[in-house]
């Protein structure tokens, strides 16, 4: 047996951990689900009754994960929140292995967050511009190939600058967040809602003709009214393949219609 | 196995300010029944409102319970002194790093060559020794997870005594600071219990 093999055999590199990670990666990407899966396998391996992983995250601060996704008590949270580590009951596992498990969990958490923040707007948690552009390209390609219909709706908040100027940016951010919530509720499963600029949002309505967008705007108005968000908005739409199957052209048409409506409103 | 939607749901809840833990219980049909959050904020009702809104998007029927810890944290004994990272500088011309750490008003400085990753970790060990710690570990590996910028750095230290390894992970604005913080992360238990200073 070579030195490297004997090190593996001694468990220094926790081969089960690497096997677990590889198995997980063959099914999907590392993320929150991986953390629970690894805690579960760690518990079975050592016949543990309870495992808590305390991780630290640059953006989120300390985070506690418990075997089986169970909640911890406030007392327990206080006990574990201060010191990142893996705590198990009974405490029979070598610290080296606990450290290795914590590092793997920490990595999965960081990767999940990096993936999520690469595609989502941090304020509203809906898709960001990049993710919207990708979805639009995909929808347009499908539309050109199979003649599938979809409608792009650009939603612009009216006089949002005044909200910021009069009530401050914190209030303005809260309005945007609430608007994002309402937008997510107003779209159907399979639609895409995104924040594509400061106070500009866009939605891809799958299998929808232009006139069907009115159902979406009605839902959105109703949701805003029920959540007491006092903000008005204007929309512009473009439908593929009727208007175009080119993503940039669709956005240009929807934008043009939006500004036409805005012009009418201002005059 | 958790679905991608469930994972994102939990991540979104965990990204709320002050959330320490998220617990989920399920109905027989697999939908989420109750979401329990343990939070450390002055006003848990704000978290309750936002968490309820998030839950309503994913699982409209789910109940949200928020449990605060701030009353318990105030009863906790004051934590002991901790080693804190102060700053790190990289001399690109020479390829050397300088890391400064502090504890109880004292400052330790460590310097090392070998670029921002290995140099950042070695300079951190040097700064700890400068603070008077007898650090019985040697540097084994420093790895940037994707070999790209701004991704987590994993540091492995090997114990001089028993060949056991310790791992640390951190992500900061640049590789050198990530390496320095990951080194501290790998030694957090050792530093917390060490009297050798």
Largest sheet of chain A: 4 strands, antiparallel
Oligomer kind: heterodimer
Count of discrete alpha- or pi-helical segments spanning 4 or more residues of chain A: 10
**Termini of chain B, distance in Å?**
47 Å
Sheet with the most strands of chain B? 3 strands, mixed
Report the principal-axis shape of chain B: elongated
Strands ordered across the widest β-sheet of chain B: 1-2-3
Mean pLDDT across all residues of chain A, rounded? 88
Given as residue ranges, the uncertain stretches of chain A (5+ residues, pLDDT < 50) are: 1-12
β-strand percent of chain A reads: 15-25%
Topology:
The complex is a heterodimer of chains A (267) and B (197).
Chain A: H1 3-10, H2 15-27, H3 32-46, E1 50-57, E2 61-66, H4 74-81, E3 85-89, H5 95-119, H6 129-146, E4 150-157, H7 160-167, H8 169-186, E5 192-195, E6 200-206, H9 213-226, E7 233-240, H10 247-266
Antiparallel strand pairs in A: 1-2, 1-3, 4-6, 4-7, 5-6
Helix pairs in contact in A: 3-5, 7-8, 8-9
Chain B: H1 4-14, E1 19-26, E2 32-39, H2 44-58, E3 63-68, H3 70-73, E4 84-91, E5 96-103, E6 106-112, H4 115-130, E7 137-144, E8 153-159, E9 165-170, H5 175-186, H6 188-193
Parallel strand pairs in B: 2-3
Antiparallel strand pairs in B: 1-2, 4-5, 5-6, 7-8, 8-9
Question: How does this structure look, described?
Answer:
- The complex is a heterodimer of chains A (267) and B (197).
- Chain A has 2 domains: 3-117, no CATH class; 129-266, 2-Layer Sandwich (Alpha-Beta Plaits), CATH 3.30.70.
- Chain A is built from 10 helices and 7 strands.
- Chain A has helices spanning 3-10, 15-27, 32-46, 74-81, 95-119, 129-146, 160-167, 169-186, 213-226, 247-266, and strands at residues 50-57, 61-66, 85-89, 150-157, 192-195, 200-206, 233-240.
- Chain A has a 4-stranded antiparallel β-sheet with strand order 5-6-4-7, sandwiched between helices.
- In chain A, β1 and β2 (61-66) form a beta hairpin.
- In chain A, α3 (32-46) runs antiparallel to α5 (95-119), α7 (160-167) crosses α8 and α8 crosses α9.
- The longest helix of chain A is centred in the middle third of the chain and has 25 residues, at 95-119.
- The radius of gyration of chain A is 25 Å and the shape is elongated.
- The model of chain A is unreliable at 1-12 (pLDDT under 50).
- Chain B has 197 residues and is an alpha+beta fold.
- In chain B, 32% of the residues lie in helices and 34% in strands.
- Chain B has a 3-stranded mixed β-sheet with strand order 1-2-3. Chain B has a 3-stranded antiparallel β-sheet with strand order 4-5-6.
- In chain B, β8 (153-159) and β9 form a beta hairpin.
- Chains A and B meet through α3, β2, α4, α5 and α8 of A and α1, β1, β2, α2 and β9 of B.
């Amino acid at each position: 047996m070579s030195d490297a093999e004997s090190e593996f055999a001694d468990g220094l590199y926790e081969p089960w951990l690497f096997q677990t990670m590889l198995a997980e990666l063959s099914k999907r990407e590392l993320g929150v689900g991986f953390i629970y899966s690894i805690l579960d396998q760690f518990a079975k391996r050592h016949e543990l009754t309870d495992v808590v992983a305390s991780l630290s995250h640059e953006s989120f601060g300390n985070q506690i994960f418990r075997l089986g996704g169970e909640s911890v008590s406030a007392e327990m949270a206080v006990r574990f929140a201060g010191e990142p580590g893996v705590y198990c009951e009974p405490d029979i596992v070598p610290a080296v292995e606990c450290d290795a498990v914590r590092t793997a969990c920490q990595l999965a958490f960081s990767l999940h967050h990096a993936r999520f923040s690469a595609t989502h707007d941090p304020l509203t948690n809906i898709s960001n511009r990049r993710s919207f552009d990708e979805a639009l390209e995909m929808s347009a390609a499908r539309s050109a190939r199979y003649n599938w219909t979809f409608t792009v709706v650009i939603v612009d908040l009216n006089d949002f600058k005044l909200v910021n100027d009069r009530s401050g940016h914190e209030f303005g951010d809260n309005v945007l967040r609430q608007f994002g919530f309402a937008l997510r509720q107003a779209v159907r499963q399979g639609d895409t809602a995104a924040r594509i600029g400061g106070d500009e949002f866009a939605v891809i309505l799958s299998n929808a003709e232009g006139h069907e967008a009115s159902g979406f705007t009605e839902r959105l108005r109703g949701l805003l009214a029920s959540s007491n968000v006092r903000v008005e908005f204007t929309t512009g739409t473009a439908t593929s393949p009727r208007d175009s199957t080119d993503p940039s052209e669709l956005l240009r048409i929807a934008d043009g219609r939006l500004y036409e409506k805005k012009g009418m409103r201002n005059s | 196995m958790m679905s991608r939607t469930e994972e994102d749901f939990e991540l979104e809840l965990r990204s709320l300010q002050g959330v320490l833990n998220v617990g989920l219980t399920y109905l027989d049909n697999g939908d989420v029944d109750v979401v329990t959050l343990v939070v450390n904020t002055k006003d848990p009702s704000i978290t309750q409102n936002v968490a309820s809104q998030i839950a309503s998007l994913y699982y409209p029927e789910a109940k949200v319970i928020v449990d605060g810890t701030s009353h318990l944290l105030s009863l906790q004994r004051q934590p002991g002194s901790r080693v804190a990272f102060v700053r790190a500088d990289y001399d690109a011309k020479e390829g050397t790093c300088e890391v400064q750490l502090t504890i109880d008003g004292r400052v330790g400085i460590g310097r090392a060559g070998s670029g921002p990753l290995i140099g950042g970790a070695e300079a951190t060990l040097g700064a700890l020794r400068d603070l008077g710690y007898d650090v019985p570990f040697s540097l084994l590996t420093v790895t940037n997870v994707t070999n790209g910028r701004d991704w987590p750095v994993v540091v492995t230290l090997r114990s001089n005594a028993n060949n056991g390894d310790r791992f640390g992970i951190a992500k900061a604005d640049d590789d050198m600071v990530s390496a320095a913080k990951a080194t501290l992360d790998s030694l957090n238990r050792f530093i917390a219990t060490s009297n050798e200073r």
